């Protein structure tokens, strides 16, 4: 039986990298807005299932979902990857 491959290998690579706490932490420290980063304790990142259903029965999906501690309590960071193969028209 032949294994199927993804039609978006770049997305798969990024999703794989972002499942590692150290890599995710580094990327979040670089790309999260300062105001959000200051509220989050990125040392407490915990990988969660990427899909879930809320109390109102609405389904949510993310490429990678992390839980973490914040100044206000428990929180979540959704990571949704949009790999861009060509630059934006400028």
Automatic annotation (TrEMBL):
MF GO annotations:
double-stranded DNA endonuclease activity
Q: Which residues cross the membrane?
A: none
GO BP terms: namely:
DNA recombination
| Family the UniProt entry places it in | Belongs to the Rpn/YhgA-like nuclease family.
Record protein name field: Transposase (putative) YhgA-like domain-containing protein
- Highest taxon in the source lineage: Bacteria
The signal peptide stretch is none
Q: Transposase (putative) YhgA-like domain: which residues?
A: 8-89
Biological source species:
Salmonella enterica subsp. enterica serovar Poona
């Amino acid at each position: 039986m032949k294994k199927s491959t993804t039609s978006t290998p770049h997305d798969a690579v990024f999703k794989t990298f972002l499942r590692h706490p150290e890599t995710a932490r580094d990327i979040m420290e670089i790309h999260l807005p300062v105001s959000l980063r200051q509220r989050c304790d990125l040392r407490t990142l915990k990988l969660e299932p990427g899909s879930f259903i809320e109390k109102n029965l609405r389904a949510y999906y993310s490429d990678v979902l992390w839980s973490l501690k914040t100044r206000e309590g428990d929180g979540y960071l959704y990571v949704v990857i949009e790999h861009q193969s060509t630059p934006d028209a400028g």
